[in-house]
Predict the 3D structure of the following.
Amino acid sequence: MNNGYTTGQPGMGAPNGGRPMYGVAGGRTSNGRSAEDLLAETLKYQKRISRRTALAAVAHVLLILTLLALLAAAALLLPRIFGIVGQVEDALENVQSLTETAEDAVRDVEETVGEAGTLVKDSGSDLAEAIRKLNSIDIDSLNDAIGSLRDAADALGRIGRQVP
């Protein structure tokens, strides 16, 4: 349908003789509202949009400030966290070293106990033999032999004192 907007010629059924209609006829729009009403409504709508835009801008600024605060906190805390992680690694190494030392000590104790058991077994038979031999000694005969030996040593001592 040719309404005159593209060709500039009057078209069929075009209002106002085919010319574009930019204004309002008689101060009223086609729906019966006045231009002042439309202007007031447009102004109210623009104020609402302006408030929402300002609110969105404030929200964005707050979001950016929050992100900056989080980054600053992370920048301050990361060196401490890395320091703590290093200390934990050192502590774990020390625990591992202590565990190895404790395992070595347990092995040494087990070996010592095993050797002590072997020593007791081996020396037990020798000790029993020694006790049997001591029990088989005739104490009275031994005392007599010691007395005789003492008498002989006394006699030799007297001879040795007489020789200049």
